[in-house]
């Protein structure tokens, strides 16, 4: 059985949050990406950003990692 790989979860979450911010800026900057049938796209980016920040806060407080398991 191979040993578990150490992953910096906070760094992974930071990168994900930055990607959601960039996606939100792009969607808001290009009008065709948030008009008509795509009106929900900015809210998808906002939801990803909010959930990412909540996950970041959860792991930062020491929960959500396997070190205490």
Defining key terms:
69 residues; mainly alpha; 2 helices; 59% helix; DUF2530; membrane; transmembrane helix; transmembrane
Quick description:
By secondary structure, the chain is mainly alpha-helical. It has helices at residues 9-29, 41-60.
Descriptive account of the structure:
- The protein is elongated and about 50 Å long.
- The protein has one domain.
- The chain contains 2 helices and no strands.
- The model has no long low-confidence stretch (mean pLDDT 89).
- The longest helix is centred in the first third of the chain and has 21 residues, at 9-29.
- It has helices spanning 9-29, 41-60.
- The two termini are 18 Å apart.
- It is mainly alpha-helical and 69 residues long.
- Keywords: Membrane, Transmembrane, Transmembrane helix.
- InterPro entries: DUF2530.
Sequence-ordered SSE layout with sheet pairings:
Elements lengths: L8 H21 L11 H20 L9
Keywords: Membrane, Transmembrane, Transmembrane helix
Pfam families: DUF2530 (PF10745)
Question: How is the main sheet built?
Answer: none
Strand/helix succession: HH
Strand content: under 5%
pLDDT < 50 stretches: none
Structural class: mainly alpha
Please indicate the count of domains: 1
Rg (C-alpha, Å)? 16 Å
What number is the mean pLDDT?
89
Number of strands: 0
Pfam families: DUF2530 (PF10745)
Keywords: Membrane, Transmembrane, Transmembrane helix
Transmembrane segments: 12-34, 40-59
